[in-house]
Hints:
The structure holds two protein chains of two kinds.
Chain A: E1 5-10, H1 16-22, E2 30-37, E3 41-42, E4 48-49, E5 52-57, H2 59-76, E6 83-88, E7 90-92, E8 97-105, H3 112-126, E9 129-135, E10 138-142
Parallel strand pairs in A: 1-6
Antiparallel strand pairs in A: 2-8, 3-4, 5-7, 5-9, 6-8, 9-10
Chain B: E1 2-8, H1 11-16, E2 20-25, H2 31-41, E3 53-56, E4 59-60, E5 72-76
Amino acid sequence: MDSPTIIFLTESELDLDALLARITLPTTGAAAIFTGMVRGQTSRGDAHETAYLDYEAYQPMAETKMRQVADEIRQKWPTIEGIAIVQRIGRLYPGTPTTLIACTSAHRNTGVFEAARYGIDRLKEIVPVWKKEIGPQGEEWVEGHYRPKPGE
Amino acid sequence: MHKVKVLFFATLRDYVGSKSLELEIPFGMTVGGLTDLLVATYPRLEKVKNSMMVAINREYAANEQVIPEGAEIAFFPPVSGG
């Protein structure tokens, strides 16, 4: 049976149920689904409020790097059945899912949790997407900290 | 000389005032050489020169890498998706 890998960027709302259905096989008994959300109120660190985020992507490279993340997951956890990695772009308001990383497998103890966690961590390291934060204090591009190595 | 496409994203697009440029560059020019040329043309890039990332044909590139003919070169800040 083919292992489904779903990769895309979209300006449309994420349909979590539909995405889960697309990575569910007859043998699937467990799914770990992570979604990032737009946080309206930040208390950790520099406390502030967020009105909305504007996401942009270097789309063709982002798709390539999302596929690379899926390949890395399959190498590390060969028992993973389906993988979905989706990034929403455009203007997103608090409470909205912005990204989805979902992994399925036959049983919950075969790495699904770790695989989904790895997926979101890697996406935030190497997938060329940026967000501008707009709030009562004005607007500011958010910058990451990770510097991918050449070819990474 | 050969023609390349240069793309800018996020803060760098704001600094350059454009999201893409077509440039004629000498054969053998490296990523570092192109970076210096761009900083000279767009002085606002100076402060992010050491933090920005560069991709050639959609793959992360090193400063000493020579830019291939007809390449697509993207400059952007460290990514912040998710």
